[in-house]
Automatic annotation (TrEMBL):
Taxonomy, superkingdom: Bacteria
Pfam annotation, one family: SCO1-SenC
CDD domains for the chain: SCO
Keywords, sorted A to Z: Copper, Disulfide bond, Metal-binding
PANTHER family, sorted: ELECTRON TRANSPORT PROTIN SCO1/SENC FAMILY MEMBER, LINALOOL DEHYDRATASE_ISOMERASE DOMAIN-CONTAINING PROTEIN
Protein name as it appears in the record: Electron transport protein SCO1/SenC
Presence of keyword Disulfide bond: yes
Organismal lineage: Bacteria, Pseudomonadati, Pseudomonadota, Betaproteobacteria, Nitrosomonadales
Bridged cysteine pairs (disulfide): C74-C78
Length: 204
């Protein structure tokens, strides 16, 4: 039974990753808006769902979550993404949508808990952060098909290296399903419109 469970888990992971990768590819292929409202919700992998629940333990279990990946040493992309995230949390509140934002660091070697706590304060009180390391971080990134690339990072340079990463963001429903995939930099107004015009999504 244990082996069967592992096989099923492996099949689920491959299916989930393949479906998400196809959706992300389709979203990035267009030159216009890349927001993807999923007709069928994609459930998060169990480990990722558990991690998200732990971040919001003791808080409103009926909250939706906006998730974006980045790092605190980012000079332009991440601040812009977080500013959009903060704006969307406020826009959601204006529409009486229970919503919170989460910043997931892809650079835990430089982003300590103290650094992240201070960093996100500049963008609003409804934003949280998640810091994972090693294999746990790699699995969490893979659960969202998030790609990263580190340049000039080595034993002699652990502070002044460069990082590239995707700007894809995710809207997760209270049950732990991915409902919307969008670009954190360019599609914030699409999500704001979604809050106003698609109320049934948030009542389902």
């Amino acid at each position: 039974m244990k082996n069967i469970s592992k096989i099923r888990s492996g099949i689920y992971r491959k299916y989930f990753s393949a479906m998400l990768a196809i959706l992300l590819l389709a979203a990035s292929a267009g030159s216009e808006a890349t927001t993807v409202l999923l007709r069928r919700p994609i459930p998060l992998l169990p480990e990722a769902a558990v991690r998200l629940n732990q971040v919001h333990a003791g808080k409103d279990p009926g909250r939706w979550q906006l998730i974006v990946f980045g790092f605190a040493h980012c000079k332009d992309v991440c601040p812009a993404s977080l500013a959009n995230l903060s704006m969307l949390v406020k826009a959601g509140a204006a529409e009486r949508i229970r919503l919170s934002g989460l910043f997931v660091t892809i650079d835990p070697d430089r982003d300590t808990d103290a650094t992240l706590s201070q960093y996100i304060k500049a963008f609003g009180t409804d934003l949280g952060y998640l810091r994972l390391e090693g294999g746990e971080l790699e699995r969490f990134k893979a659960a969202f098909s998030v790609e990263t690339a580190f340049y000039t990072k080595n034993a002699g340079n652990m502070q002044n290296y460069q990082v590239d990463h995707s700007t894809t963001a995710f809207l997760i429903d209270p049950a732990g399903n991915i409902r919307v995939i969008f670009d954190a930099l360019t599609d914030a107004t699409d999500i704001e419109d979604l809050f106003r015009k698609n109320r049934t999504l948030f009542e389902s």
